[in-house]
Amino acid sequence: MPSTAGYMLVAGGLSLALFWIIWMLLRSEGDEAPWIPAGLAAGFVILFAAAAREIVMRRAWARYTREMELVMGAADAGRSPLKAKANSNAWPGMQAQVAALRGLQQRLSEVDAANTPPEAHLEAYKLCEQYLANTDEALRSPGGGPAEMRAALRSGQERVRALQRKHLLAWARGEATRLTHEAQRRVRHSDRIETAQRALEVLGEALRVYPGEQELVDSSVALRNFVASVKVGQWVEMAERAAFRGKYARAVARYRDALFYLSRADMSEDARDEAAMRIQREIEMLRARAHTSDPIEELSRVDGDGATRRPAPRDVGAGEGGEVIG
């Protein structure tokens, strides 16, 4: 193959010589702008030389390729036809997966909006999962295909795995947030616990795929604290009602029940200690109030209704005891 630099150097020298010849001829005849036609002629020579070389080299390369195919065809005639068939089968499958990657990236780009519902992120995660399964099957196919195509498929798998993780976390985050807000709006304790448990199941599914994701772990801890606070809150509410009716001994007993369930609740130690301290303060306040009103009578009646009615205490349920569970 001739040198491209040498060829273009010769062509440039010829065009430069032509430029000066035409320029001198036109200047001797008194032309006011001899460099314009001289430059056009020199540029035409350069373009013609480049086009001619491209045509000649294409024809030479095509002739060389045909000759090499004839030579290599005779050498490959004795190879196994099974391997050739496997390569021919693997190539279309890999090409299809490369095309599928472009379509998948286009569909996932549509899901990246800020107001996308969690269900769309879950669907995107499943699409990524399906693509990874298909590419694994294509890579395991007999023959394997060219090394460049296999490298391209593996690179695409890495990008899809990152997108898969992103959309699964977005689904878990959005769905858990929606269920948590719904649980907080519920009135009945059982409904709040059931809805919060559904949010915990969502986070559990995501944690099975990415067990070391700190965001999921923190959200699970927060939800377990919420569920435990709702369970303990039922006993706190019963204690507040008893204290409001002036039954201080019964209120203390209900607070002790709340402490019992609080010790067995699935929650963090910090939240447990804080809630226990608040309940202990409420118990001390109730004992002090019971002693100032009628300690003997009130402390003796733990579960009895009694005929004597006491004045209602001053807003016990709205104090710190009401903030234990929230």
Structure characterization notes:
The chain is mostly helical and 326 residues long. It is built from 10 helices and no strands. The radius of gyration is 41 Å and the shape is elongated. The N and C termini lie far apart (84 Å). Mean pLDDT is 74; it is low at 71-91, 295-300 and 302-326.
Sequence-ordered SSE layout with sheet pairings:
Elements: H1 4-28, H2 35-76, H3 81-109, H4 118-139, H5 147-185, H6 189-209, H7 214-244, H8 248-264, H9 269-293, H10 295-300
Instruction: Determine the N-to-C terminus distance.
Output: 84 Å
The helix/strand series, from N terminus to C terminus, equals HHHHHHHHHH
Q: How can the largest sheet be summarized?
A: none
Count the beta strands.
Answer: 0
Strand content is under 5%
The poorly predicted ranges are 71-91, 295-300, 302-326
* Structural class determined from secondary elements: mainly alpha
User: How does the overall form come out from the CA principal axes?
Assistant: elongated
Q: Considering DSSP H and I runs of 4 or more, what fraction of the residues is helical?
A: over 70%
Mean residue pLDDT: 74
Radius of gyration: 41 Å
Number of helices: 10
